[in-house]
Structures are given as C-alpha cells and as structure tokens.
Amino acid sequence: MTTTHEWPHLFSAGAPGTPVLLLLHGTGGTEQDLLPLAERLAPGAGYLAPRGPVQEHGMNRWFRRFGEGLFDVDDVVLRAGELAGFVEWARTHYGIADRPLVAVGFSNGANIALGAVLLHPDTVPTAVAFSGMYPLDGRSIEADLSGSSIALFNGKADPMAPIDSVVRVGSILESRGAEVSRYVREGGHGIHPTEVDGAAAWIASHTRKVTQ
Predict the structure, then answer these.
(1) From the candidates 25, 158, 165, 206, which is the catalytic residue?
(2) Which GO MF terms are attached to this record (predicted)?
C-alpha cells in the first residue's frame, strides 16, 4: 500500500481557473506518459500525474490481474480507494479543491479511472477513458452517479478492451444516473488523434460552466 504523501507523482498548477487533469498511464507506463496529451486536451490546465502502485513483471500498473482481461476485482476496489484518497490529499495539499478535476486514463489507467468513478464519484466525478473496459465484474454498483460525466473512447476491434465490456460499463454508468458519451472508431487499442480532438472538446464543454 502506498502512503498518500509518498506516492510518486508530478503536479503542475496550470493557469488559474482551468481544470486539473488526473493523468493515469497504461500498463508499463510512468507518471510522464500522458504529459504530452495534457496541453492538447486542455490548454493551460493543471495536471496531477501519479504512478501506478502495483508491479507486474517490473511494469507499473494500477491494480493486479490474473491474466489478460481477468482482473483481481478485490484489488481494483482497494486501489480505487487508494487513488481516491490520494486525490483528496492532493486537492488539499496543492490548494486545488475549488478546481474541476477530470481523470484522463489510457488502458489500465482508464480502467482505474472508471473504477474510481463507479466507487468514489464524489472524489472522481468526471473522466475520459481511452481504451478502457468494465473493471468490476461480479460487483453491484450502488452509488448515485447523477453528478458524474464520462467519455468513453474505444476501438471497435480492440482485443484488450472488448466492445461488449465497453457497452456494459456505459450501461452500468447510465443505470446509476451518470451522463455517458460514447465514441467508437475503427481499429484497436490506443489513442487516435481524432479521439484527442474529441476528448478536448468534451473536456472544454464539461468544465466551462464550472470555470466561467
């Protein structure tokens, strides 16, 4: 378990009045990975980029798994709680409690972002998930997500995030009251340039009313 104040991470306050992006890398990545996306997704915004706390054959991850697509759901629940705790600490520590926070995750990072939204919507109510899927098989979701907004960006032929799981997570989010925007493209796992443009527009539309 990572002690909150010792969690390796990067932070930039960005310009006043902008959102803060919670950048969550994919398997094998680091807190540096999504920094090049930050300025393209929300020019001038701040960012909070922690490192995944789990090791798998020397690769950083956000939670354990038993195999490709077979998640240790107990660990997903634990790690989503740890991430929410880290976010709460950072919002106070860096003085950004009044700024809108948008989780932006890729692959494994998208999955932990979705887990945090589903389990801790008061802390992580807004998320952009690139190549993510449903991370909580076998768990019932009771949270009220009526204040949550999520954008799902997925490839139609992604073997690592099957489209049926993508449909499922969107349906579960909506069933609990969340606003869900779905974007499905041709191709597989990854972040396509058109998705970056779409996510930037989505982030702008979902934070403008807060920051104006």
Answers:
(1) 158
(2) hydrolase activity
For residue 208, pLDDT beyond 80: no
Which domains are seen in the chain, by residue range?
Answer: 4-211 (3.40.50.1820)
Options 107, 131, 148, 149, the catalytic residue: 107
- pLDDT, one tens digit per residue, over 99-114 is 999 999 999 999 999 9
210 has a pLDDT exceeding 50: no
Catalytic one of 9, 72, 75, 189: 189
Entry pTM: 0.95
- CA-nearest of 147, 157, 154 to 187 is 157
Write the CB contacts of 40 (distance below 8 Å, at least 6 apart in sequence): 196, 200
189 a catalytic residue: yes
Instruction: Reply yes or no on whether 107 is catalytic.
Output: yes
Burial annotation 69-100 (CB, 10 A radius, 16+ → b, else e): eebebebbbebbebbbebbbebbeeeebeebb
